[in-house]
Amino acid sequence: MAETQELTQATENMSLEQNITPWEVEGAVVDGVQQAIDYDKLVKQFGTRKIDDALLERFETATGQKPHLYLRRGIFFSHRELEKILERYEQGKPFYLYTGRGPSRGHMHIGHMMPFIFCKWLQDVFDCPLVVQLTDDEKFLFKNDLTLEQANEYAFNTVREIAAIGFKPEKTFIFSDIEYMGGAFYRNVLRISRMVTYSTAKASFGFKESDHIGKIHFPSIEAAPAFCSSFPDIFGERKDVPCLIPCGIDQDPYFRLTRDVSQRLKHKKPSLIHARFLPALQGSTSKMSSSNDVSAIFMSDTPAQIKKKINRYAFSGGRTSLDEHRMYGGNPDVDVPFQYLTYFLDDDKEIEDLAEGYRKGEITSGEMKARCIAVIQEFVGKFQEREAAITDADVKNFMDPVYPRPYTALAKK
Ligand code: TRP
């Protein structure tokens, strides 16, 4: 008995650091209680920079555009040398965007959409090419129950979804690693892999002796699209066109490594801009995850499913009774419906009013949920309409490395 108590005590007092890798995202555990992810700590630990007001002003001056709501609200909150890309834009020098996605079964969830929505906005603002890597190979290597055929099939379905975000096919190349590997891309993969030792990979990604060698090699494959010479159909012989990589902060280890090898490869270092995770319906201690059906709202969900999930599962920052809520007010900072609204509702004034009204107890948690449901239903509904209009020919064009993409100007110096 005493022994069991001691054991429980030990577990409760145990503090676990937060653990953020490309494959695991967990907040710290303090005294047995799961904590929210500490993003400031990540910035320090990873050695990135926070996006501050000065940089946002710089962005606005360079582009003449009001920063996207993801920037205004600190959803994309951290970066590496974003200013270099702004400088190039001001000088009229080319650059491109690079992002990616590990294709999985079924549809993406609303959290997966963020980097892509942001990329679409950046592509419109900068009028630049975008390359999207679908890491069907990564999924095969990291998920033991997945066959190669399935992973590859998921990639093709993913193209349809990404296309539905509204990218311009003449400026967007989406590739499956399995399909595109070879030629210039594979040459860069090889060059990179020879520059990364096992001990570096182990230190960056936490690989273990028992991991198979496919995992250990994979980072060179995610690094290669950051170098323009992997895409000769877009950039010709050039090696001097850098990219900006919008990604979740968990992907940073790949690109720290990429930046390290850039110089030896005689390419420019990629710049990065990092997003926070969209919280799970259950709250901000974990991110929305496809493997947990009730934590996520999928892009294939019906209006009724969206309503049910938010009403039933979304963590509320409201009080337990309506009387108490009216008296003491709620907490929008932990209220998941309000948090989702900050990701999907562009109107700054309405966001402010919602937060204030909630704090004062004037807005109930039921009302907050109802607003969130309406906004997400509209977002998902519009997406589904666009997705239904994507044809097989569209998919083929996005995946064709030489589909007419008028970048002859880029290929010349
Ligand atoms: N590894 C990422 C995932 O599992 C996919 C990815 C590949 C990616 N290249 C990228 C993400 C570049 C962001 C930026 O989702």
In short:
The chain is 51% helix and 12% strand. With 413 residues, the protein is α/β, with parallel strands linked by helices.
Layout of strands and helices, then pairs:
Elements: H1 2-13, E1 19-20, E2 25-26, E3 29-30, E4 33-34, H2 39-46, E5 49-50, H3 53-63, H4 69-72, E6 76-80, H5 82-90, E7 96-101, H6 110-126, E8 130-134, H7 136-142, H8 148-163, E9 172-176, H9 177-180, H10 183-193, H11 198-205, H12 213-223, H13 232-235, E10 243-248, H14 252-262, E11 271-275, E12 279-280, E13 283-287, H15 303-313, H16 322-328, H17 336-344, H18 348-360, H19 365-388, H20 392-399, H21 408-411
Parallel strand pairs: 7-8, 7-10, 8-9, 10-11
Antiparallel strand pairs: 1-2, 3-4, 5-6, 6-11, 12-13
Residues 22, 98-102, 133, 135, 138, 222, 245, 247, 251 line the site of tryptophan.
How would you describe what is shown here?
- Belongs to the class-I aminoacyl-tRNA synthetase family.
- This protein has 413 residues and is an alpha/beta fold.
- It has 2 domains: 42-281, 3-Layer(aba) Sandwich (Rossmann fold), CATH 3.40.50; 303-389, Tyrosyl-Transfer RNA Synthetase, CATH 1.10.240.
- It has helices spanning 2-13, 39-46, 53-63, 69-72, 82-90, 110-126, 136-142, 148-163, 177-180, 183-193, 198-205, 213-223, 232-235, 252-262, 303-313, 322-328, 336-344, 348-360, 365-388, 392-399, 408-411; strands spanning 19-20, 25-26, 29-30, 33-34, 49-50, 76-80, 96-101, 130-134, 172-176, 243-248, 271-275, 279-280, 283-287.
- Strand 10 (243-248), helix 14 (252-262) and strand 11 (271-275) form a beta-alpha-beta unit.
- The model is unreliable at 1-12 (pLDDT under 50).
- The protein binds tryptophan.
- Tryptophan is lined by residues 22, 98-102, 133, 135, 138, 222, 245, 247, 251.
